[in-house]
Amino acid sequence: MFRYEARFLPCLAAALAALLCLVGCGESQPPPVYAATNNYLNALAAGNYASACAVLDGRARASLTKLAGSRVSCARAFTLCLPNRAENLKQDQAQLYYATTDIHTHGSTASATTSGTAVANALKRLTLAKEGGHWKVTSYGQGLKRCRRRGARHARTTRGDK
To answer: What share of the chain is helix, strand, coil (3-state, %, to 5)?
Structure first.
């Protein structure tokens, strides 16, 4: 029995060394530009539009509300402007983990291409800028080009209930 254990001793030592290396290195955090992009995607996917609005800079919020109608809040604008397929999936938390984000930084600005989930596919492309040490989303999403009328969503769900 002693020979059997001694044979695996080098493997055990290698595994222990790898584990110590991982513990010593600590958990790596994504770069802040990725974090800002992921926060925005995750907030939209979860239906937390107020948090998504907080990640947008002032011009992007104003542009989104203008697209939806001048008297609409930023959070309400997402309700009107996200495609139904993206909004219907907001309760599916699994989609938070499958978005693909490709980010290119250029100094204090960045562009992000998103895909893989209903929300990421709806947005398609974002721009970001570093403001006061934090990354802000400067465009709400290239794929959001039009919004539903304010009463259209309610009318659509009412017809579906009959």
So the answer is: 55, 15, 30
The predicted pLDDT at position 139 comes to 94
Task: Give the Cα separation of 41 and 54 in Å (integer).
Answer: 12
| Cα distance between residue 93 and residue 35, in whole Å | 18
pTM: 0.70
Q: In which band, very low, low, confident or very high, does the pLDDT at 130 lie, cut at 50, 70 and 90?
A: very high
The tokens describing 67, both together, are 């697209």
Q: How far apart are alpha carbons 122 and 143 in whole angstroms?
A: 5
pLDDT per position as a tens digit, 84-108? 766 544 555 565 567 888 999 999 9
3-class secondary-structure state, position 44: helix
**The token pair that represents 96 in the structure block:** 């938070």
Task: Give me the pLDDT at residue 145, please.
Answer: 86
- Rg for the chain, CA atoms, rounded: 22
126 phi, psi to nearest 5 deg:
-125, 160
Q: Report the distance separating Cα 162 and Cα 156, nearest Å.
A: 11
Distances, alpha carbon 129 to alpha carbons 16, 99, 111, in Å? 43, 21, 9
Residue percentage of the chain with pLDDT more than 70: 65
